[in-house]
């Protein structure tokens, strides 16, 4: 009988050398980040008796500024235009209802805008250049008005023009954003 070697001989050319494989990176979390603090919707509602204060409590500063300006404009128009009381009866309840709804949304993990102290994603980072220019122009105008009073009574007749300009801006912004999306989609396809 011949003895055969039952163990196969592995030559270096036949051997498979396994290199260590790094584990795959962890998948990003799909659940929204829940805030660590819970807000009292009732307190946010009552604080909104002063427009914007309830939103400051919630950490929604952009909304707070908008609602404060809307409340101040409504109070200013009360003495100067027939539409003032109508604005007040719209702005104050709407501010209170929105503060209540935002508190519930934040408590359930939904955030309409980044909370105070939260980092902005780089893709959504906005420049404050326009707002800075706006504040500078308004401040310079008010400073000029201190020394050389400017008659502003024409604004009582022309205030609807601000609504028209705001509407034109929003429509133009919509179409520019739509054009940017189409350009981005065409670049992805290519």
Properties at a glance:
190 residues; mainly alpha; 58% helix; extended
Verbal overview:
- The chain has a domain at 37-118.
- It has helices spanning 41-47, 53-58, 61-80, 84-107, 129-147, 155-158, 160-189.
- Helix content is 58%, strand content 0%.
- Helix 1 (41-47) runs antiparallel to helix 4 (84-107) and helix 3 runs antiparallel to helix 4 (84-107).
- Residues 120-125 have low confidence and may be disordered.
- It starts with 40 loop residues before the first helix and ends with a helix.
- It is built from seven helices and no strands.
- With 190 residues, it is mainly α.
Topology:
Blueprint: H1 41-47, H2 53-58, H3 61-80, H4 84-107, H5 129-147, H6 155-158, H7 160-189
Helix pairs in contact: 1-4, 3-4
Q: Give a short account of the largest sheet.
A: none
Q: What's the count of strands? A: 0
Taken in chain order, the helices and strands follow as HHHHHHH
Distance between the termini: 71 Å
Poorly predicted spans? 120-125
Radius of gyration: 30 Å
Mean pLDDT: 76
Structural class by sheet pairing and helices: mainly alpha
* Helix fraction bin: 55-70%
| Continuous helix count | 7
Quick rundown:
This protein has 190 residues and is an all-alpha fold.
